Amino acid sequence: MQCPSSIGKKFRMISNKFREVADKNLQKYNLTAAQLEILIYLKSSEEEEIHQRQIETWFRLKNPTVTGLLNRLEEKEFIVRRMNPADRRYRVIELTDKGEQLLGEMWEEAKMAENRIFGSLSQEELDQLSGLLDRILISLSEESKEHTGGKLC
């Protein structure tokens, strides 16, 4: 059995490599991986109004970090922020047509990259890996609750 620190190190190395490869591939779109993740989140949440606080919670990021990401996405005209008429304390964040078009262009490229990354694994192995990662995330979430008095960060 491997020592736990070597497994943790592999997680960090994989995470860093994913981010590095993603950022390199996204340069031509003038995006970072973090910005793309927010665009994908907005696309997957089209049926509901999304506010900055939801993004902070979902990605477990602090307000200044999300503000910076949203500012850059707005400067690039991939999103708009508009006042919520029902509650003026919140601004609704939406994809623009330009943001929608960008995601459409990137879809095929993302599928090909995923095939390169996971192509050596069978569907059974992918399902098993996904299940194992889910279990680890649940364990980490439960540990986080214990250390934060029951609240997730």
List the helices and strands and how they pair.
Blueprint: H1 4-26, H2 33-44, E1 50-51, H3 52-59, H4 63-75, E2 79-83, E3 91-95, H5 97-118, H6 123-147
Give a concise summary.
With 153 residues, this protein is mostly helical. Helix content is 67%, strand content 8%.
Question: What is the helical fraction, as a range of percent?
Answer: 55-70%
Radius of gyration: 18 Å
Strand order of the largest sheet: 1-3-2
β content, as a range?
5-15%
From the helix content, strand content and strand pairing, which structural class follows? mainly alpha
Largest sheet: 3 strands, antiparallel
Global geometry: globular
Distance between the termini: 31 Å
As residue ranges, the low-confidence spans are 147-153
**Average of per-residue pLDDT values:** 86
Number of helices: 6
> Would you list the SSEs in sequence order as H and E?
HHEHHEEHH
Number of strands: 3
Give an overview of the whole structure.
- The chain has 153 residues and is mainly α.
- It has a domain of 30 residues.
- Helices cover 67% and strands 8% of the residues.
- It has a three-stranded antiparallel beta sheet with strand order 1-3-2.
- Strand 2 and strand 3 form a beta hairpin.
- The longest helix has 25 residues.
- The radius of gyration is 18 Å and the shape is globular.
- The C terminus is likely disordered.
